[in-house]
């Protein structure tokens, strides 16, 4: 709640504004959700989400706890397949392909649309092997693994801090370094999209700033979707923001997540179109 009530006075939109100065700026769609419903067994966690993610943009998913942000995020690379009873209806197009199509290889989908989790989860291996693991198991053709490891760590802004201890355990790194290692591990298999589920919520403010700066760098090469419960973070990093909430059914009282409003970040925070967005960002509802 703190981050919500404290949100408004200190919000800055420099970054988002710089990307939205031209109203006709509309890069191509990379991922496109059309009328997506997501179930866990008979429970409908998310209803009717249509949402397009644009190339080389950072999109934030925000909204109160339990409104389905992580569920939507996991549907974007078929991570929900790994959850018992989870089911997705509707279409999610990745470029020109429905990722839930019949002959689609979910593992390949997850390589091209990588994911970074809330809690850094390096493998119990050396720093080097954490990066080399993905390329090895996916059988990537690699001319020099050393070069690939260096490149991924450099792109994740970690190389200088670890270049002299590549053979040491990843567990010796700080939390922030571990999270950047997980980002490097995702990058190593050459994805197009990187999904991040509250990637900074276990980190201190300095480590958080490093990840946010890194996201701005990565945007030049990748498309990023980030779930964050921190509205200032959405305001700082995201080009566009999608606000979700949970609606209760009048008769049954069952709650389901819906997309309320999706717009450029500056627009959504400064001139929200929906009263529910306004209430949320001004802290009247959490
Ligand atoms: N693995 C699961 N099995 C059953 N229900 C789940 C599972 N994961 C999430 N849910 C439910 O789906 C709804 C949305 O959850 P989630 O996507 O985690 O929300 P958020 O990330 O916005 O906090 C919640 O009601 C939650 O309890
Ligand atoms: Mg979540």
Could you provide a short overview of the structure?
The protein has helices spanning 2-5, 14-20, 69-75, 106-112, 127-137, 145-155, 159-162, 175-187, 205-218, 231-237, 265-270, 275-281; strands at residues 29-40, 43-54, 58-62, 86-94, 97-98, 113-116, 193-197, 223-227, 240-248, 255-264. It is α/β, with parallel strands linked by helices. α5 packs parallel to α8, α6 (145-155) packs across α8 (175-187) and α8 (175-187) packs parallel to α9.
- Unreliable spans: 1-22
User: How many H/I helical runs?
Assistant: 12
Give the biggest sheet.
6 strands, mixed
Q: What hetero molecules are bound to the protein chains?
A: adenosine-5'-diphosphate, magnesium ion
Q: Rounded to an integer, what's the Rg over CA atoms?
A: 19 Å
Shape: globular
Keywords: ATP-binding, Nucleotide-binding, Translocase, Transport
Domain ABC transporter: 31-271
Protein name: Phosphate ABC transporter ATP-binding protein PstB
GO molecular function: ATP binding
């Amino acid at each position: 709640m703190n981050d919500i009530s404290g949100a408004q006075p200190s919000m800055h939109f420099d970054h988002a504004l710089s990307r939205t100065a031209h109203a006709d700026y509309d890069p191509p769609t990379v991922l496109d959700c059309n009328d997506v419903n997501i179930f866990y067994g008979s429970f409908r966690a998310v209803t009717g989400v249509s949402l397009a993610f644009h190339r080389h943009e950072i999109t934030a998913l925000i909204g109160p706890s339990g409104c389905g942000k992580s569920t939507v995020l996991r549907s974007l690379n078929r991570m929900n397949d790994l959850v018992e009873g989870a089911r997705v209806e509707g279409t999610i197009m990745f470029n020109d392909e429905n990722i839930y199509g019949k002959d689609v290889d979910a593992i390949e989908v997850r390589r091209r649309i990588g994911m970074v989790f809330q809690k850094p989860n390096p493998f119990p291996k050396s720093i080097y092997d954490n990066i080399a693991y993905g390329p090895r198991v996916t059988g990537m053709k690699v001319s020099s693994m050393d070069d690939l490891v260096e490149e991924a760590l450099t792109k994740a802004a970690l190389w200088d801090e670890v270049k002299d201890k590549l053979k040491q355990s990843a567990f010796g790194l700080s939390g922030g370094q571990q999270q950047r290692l997980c980002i490097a591990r995702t990058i190593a298999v050459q994805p197009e999209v990187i999904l991040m589920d509250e990637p900074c919520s276990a980190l201190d403010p300095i480590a958080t700033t490093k990840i946010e700066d890194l996201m701005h760098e990565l945007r030049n090469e990748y498309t990023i979707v980030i779930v964050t419960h921190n509205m200032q973070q959405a305001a700082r990093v995201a080009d566009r923001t999608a606000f979700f909430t949970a609606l209760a059914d009048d008769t049954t009282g069952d709650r389901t997540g819906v997309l309320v409003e999706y717009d450029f970040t500056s627009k959504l925070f400064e001139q929200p179109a929906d009263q529910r967005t306004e209430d949320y960002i001004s802290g009247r509802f959490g």
